[in-house]
Specification:
MetI-like fold, about 600 residues, mainly alpha, about 75% helix, single chain, globular
């Protein structure tokens, strides 16, 4: 049986001819595109077109890759077999790296909580304070961690303190923003109740706001721990101890067997940390969902006898000290909950976490004396970087900045082409098979665990020095983050339209292109612009290992103590990052 769709004005079958005027009523009138919608589409087209242009300008083609095949074979012969350091030395490097990463993550949390409270609308009514806090957060996020490491090296010298400060301050950019969003999303009910009892603002924040946001705060800190672990490889090239420093030493001496062995250790370490933190984040989410479920379906009133428990009463917190009603059984007040298995497990994890933080601080060389000396030399060090200057190489800086933009655009395009199919196959509501989705999720996780710097080193050796290696490294590295975001966006689409198409007999690909992808596309566009933002900052760092762009100028300026040139590079990159971030925010608002 066929279903014929008619316009309401059309005549029934067998009726008179509606005429040409009525026939025109069958035409569906399309909504006129708005200026904002056209602008957002144009911005997206410019990003994709810019990627194609950069792809052509950098001469990224099959011939270039085929010419590098011999170099790849030669590199494998020089990198195999892997040469791992002695077990004791390797464990010491791993512990040094983990200590710096853990201490830096804790420092970012300590700094981000007050900044997030100042940046959130529901905790800071003043517009000036919110704007200032948001500005600090954006600045920390836009400045690369290697720049913070250069400045911290001037203050603290060699040692783990430089890495802790560099990673910790840079992490405030991400952690502070997500913490502010989590604070703004808290329920106002508990805070209103505390305000009604006469509680002050600080009591409201500590008693109602922070407890609600705590699961999100912990999950964000764990996620940042993974990112800092991958970023620790970059800091080794500016003198921070750990696996990154051992990797940079091996690369400098052309000892590729040792370098690839250390890179493999770093990859496995990132993969394990990502897996553990992901499991903890999922557990926290399940605990929050379980706590939000109501345990009882009957109302609870103070001092009222419950029908299903004769002789029992429920005492309110405010009237718990009042004498029980006649005939009622007194309720014994218990100041602490029972030590259940769940409470013992949580207490054990808390003790282990505190012990890990303390041990990491000791191993990283953190001390009040070091912090005091750093605070005293902060202003003189800041004066070394001001005012900005070009050092007589302004033209070269401009050309290399343009190459950095090309690397970021080409890498984002490569990542989009690779991440779309992988992310689609990793979405359970698209493939329909949990095993297939889990397999491709694991592939994405493995790619995401590889630091971009390690990829850049491999591609530099295979394809040679220049922008081609940087674009390929960013393209492969983008698959980890962009593929995960695409899969999450597809899985978070509303299932109703897809079920409606399935009910009409549509096939799986028709459901995907007709119901799933159109609703996930706005989120994918936002993720694409975010990936371009990330790649622009990463392209600045890849120049350190010869992958082209302005990063090479940045490292050279720091080595010859031309710190005003460092400031100029940072400001130009900051302007580009803010431009892309503003474009991404505008596009998300348009599509919302």
């Amino acid at each position: 049986m066929s279903v014929v769709e008619r316009h309401p004005a059309a005549a029934p079958p067998g009726g008179p001819d509606p005429g040409p005027g009525a026939a025109r009523s069958h035409r569906r009138t399309l909504a006129r595109p708005t200026a904002a919608g056209l602008g957002a589409a144009m911005a997206l087209l410019l990003c994709v077109g810019g990627g194609v242009w950069a792809f052509i300008a950098l001469r990224l083609n099959i011939a270039t890759l085929m010419d590098s095949a011999d170099n790849a074979v030669a590199f494998l012969s020089r990198a195999l077999p892997l040469d791992f350091p002695p077990v004791g030395e390797l464990l010491s490097l791993i512990w040094q790296t983990l200590a710096i990463v853990v201490s830096a993550t804790v420092l970012s949390v300590v700094l981000s909580v007050p900044l997030a409270l100042l940046a959130a609308r529901n905790t800071t009514p003043g517009t000036a304070a919110r704007a200032a806090s948001r500005g600090v957060i954006v600045l920390c996020r836009a400045v690369p961690e290697v720049v913070f490491a250069i400045a911290a090296f001037r203050v603290f010298g060699l040692g783990g303190m430089t890495g802790v400060v560099a990673l910790g301050v840079h992490s405030v950019g991400m952690v502070g923003k997500l913490y502010a969003d989590a604070v703004e999303q808290t329920d106002e009910g508990p805070r209103t109740a505390l305000r009604a009892t006469g509680a002050g603002r600080l009591q409201q924040i500590t008693g109602a706001v922070l407890p609600q946001a705590l699961p999100s705060l912990v999950a964000t800190a764990l996620h940042r721990l993974d990112i800092n672990l991958r970023a620790s490889a970059v800091l080794g090239f500016v003198g921070v101890n750990g696996l990154g420093y051992a990797l940079s030493t091996a690369i400098t001496t052309l000892d590729y067997r040792r370098a690839m062995a250390i890179a493999l250790v770093l990859l496995l370490l990132c993969f394990v940390a990502e897996s553990i933190s992901g499991a903890i984040r999922r557990t926290l989410l399940q605990d929050v969902t379980a706590r939000r479920r109501p345990r009882r379906s009957w109302p609870v009133f103070p001092g009222v006898r419950r029908a299903d428990r004769p002789g029992g009463t429920i005492a309110a917190a405010a009237g718990a000290d009042a004498p029980p009603a006649d005939g009622a059984t007194p309720v014994r007040r218990r100041s602490l909950p029972r030590w259940s298995a769940r409470r013992i497990r949580r207490a054990t994890w808390l003790v282990l976490t505190v012990a890990l933080v303390v041990a990491s601080a000791v191993r990283s060389g953190l001390s009040w004396g070091t912090l005091r000396r750093g605070a005293e030399s902060f202003l003189p060090t800041l004066g070394d970087f001001l005012p900005p200057g070009t050092g007589g190489i302004g033209g070269q800086l401009w050309d290399d900045l343009w190459v950095t933009v090309q690397i970021a655009l080409a890498g984002t395009l490569i990542g989009l082409v690779l991440a779309l199919p992988l992310g689609t196959l990793a979405a359970r509501n698209v493939v329909g098979s949990p095993r297939v989705a889990r397999f491709f999720r694991t592939v994405i996780l493995l790619v995401r665990a590889i630091p971009e710097l390690v990829l850049a080193i491999v591609f530099v050796v295979v394809t040679g020095l220049g922008a081609v290696s940087g674009a390929l490294a960013l393209g492969v590295g983008s698959v980890g983050l962009l593929g995960k975001l695409v899969a999450d966006s597809l899985e978070e689409t509303e299932p109703g339209p897809a079920r409606a198409l399935v009910a009409t007999g549509a096939r799986r690909h028709q459901v995907f292109f007709g119901a799933v992808l159109p609703r996930a596309w706005p989120a994918v566009v936002g993720h694409l612009l975010y990936q371009l933002d990330v790649n622009l900052r990463s392209a600045t760092l890849l120049g350190i290992v010869g992958a082209g762009g302005i990063g090479y100028d940045l490292l050279n300026a720091a080595r010859v103590l031309q710190f005003p040139v460092v400031t100029t590079i940072v400001l130009t990159v900051l302007a580009l990052v803010l431009l892309i971030e503003g474009l991404a925010v505008w596009v998300r608002k348009v599509y919302a």
